[in-house]
């Protein structure tokens, strides 16, 4: 397994998982979900952290909007 060299855009990322080193994986990575594929990124790279932050903010906004819809506001 190796990290992508291509920087991803937040709009293309649907979500991510954090992978830590364990018995079957030899690298820590952020696994970004891009539609039908997965891309591993270096968790220490600034662009990786920016994309994670962007995805987290988008999730938060979506959750808040869903809360307003459920409450009838």
UniProtKB/TrEMBL annotation:
The keyword rRNA processing does not apply. Residues 1-55 form the Chemokine interleukin-8-like domain. Transmembrane segments: none annotated. Keywords: Cytokine. The lineage of its organism: Eukaryota, Metazoa, Chordata, Craniata, Vertebrata. One of its GO terms (biological process) is immune response. The keyword Metal-binding does not apply. GO terms for cellular component: extracellular space. InterPro entries: Chemokine_IL8-like_dom (IPR001811), Interleukin_8-like_sf (IPR036048). It comes from Fundulus heteroclitus (Killifish). This is C-C motif chemokine 20-like. SUPFAM superfamilies: Interleukin 8-like chemokines. GO terms for molecular function: chemokine activity.
């Amino acid at each position: 397994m190796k990290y992508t060299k291509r920087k991803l855009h937040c709009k293309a990322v649907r979500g991510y998982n954090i992978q830590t080193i364990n018995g079957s994986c030899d690298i820590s990575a952020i696994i970004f979900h891009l539609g039908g594929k997965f891309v591993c990124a270096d968790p220490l790279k600034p662009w990786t952290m920016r994309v994670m932050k962007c995805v987290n903010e988008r999730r938060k906004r979506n959750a808040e909007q869903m809360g307003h819809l459920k409450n009838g506001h």
